[in-house]
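--- STAGE predict ---
source: upstream dedup step, 1 unique chain passed
mode: sequence only
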Amino acid sequence: MVATSAVTKSCYFMSNFSCYEIAKDFASPILTTIAILISVLIAFKQLSKQHENSLELKKEEIKSKTRIDLFKEINDLLEASNTQVREINSHCFGKKYSNIEMKAAIDHVEFLELMKVFSSALLTVASKVEYHEIVNLKLFRVFRYSLYSIHHDLLALQTEKDRFKVLEKLIELTNDSMMYFGDFQVCMQNMTYGETFNSTVPERVPANKKIKVITNCSENLDALQVYFEKESNWGKSCTKYESEAKEKFSS
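--- STAGE serialize ---
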């Protein structure tokens, strides 16, 4: 009898309440508490995700606004500089075709006046682009290098004695400038408004495939950077001066 009673009440304690009865009484509050904790955890994760998405959206909005503001600012500068370059190009082009032979010379004083305007137009844009290079490092740098390359060749004309050659070269350099200005404007438009309007402005496609075109393509920009740094007159000059400086200060 004692053994039977002990077995029957083996799970009894505290005023003869069984484990089952205790578990039954506390199961509902415990499960409710667990459910609440899980709900809180899920809600916290959702809020955290929403906050993260909100920050990301805000960051993209700021980047988009910055690109738009910068595009407007740079575009105004490009237009102003391009107008000056276009006027020089038209002047030189008209001078070239001012006679039947379609060949004319430009005197040194006139060249210096045109060079001053041309140089200012190039360097004003290059400085602005360099200041905002972080927006798109490759594109902005390559565009800036293209302008430095043109500017270098422009300054080199100061010592050129062939006045016919000077005029021809001025026409060539102003043409290159206007093309690069246009390329950069296309790239900036596509960067700024491409996603918004789900459209892109086509790049320039010259008939002569040897002519350089600036596009916002990583491979093209890498190739152009190598070209301007290693193959252009400006790049070769920079390499020469850098080598001379290293040699001078290393000894």
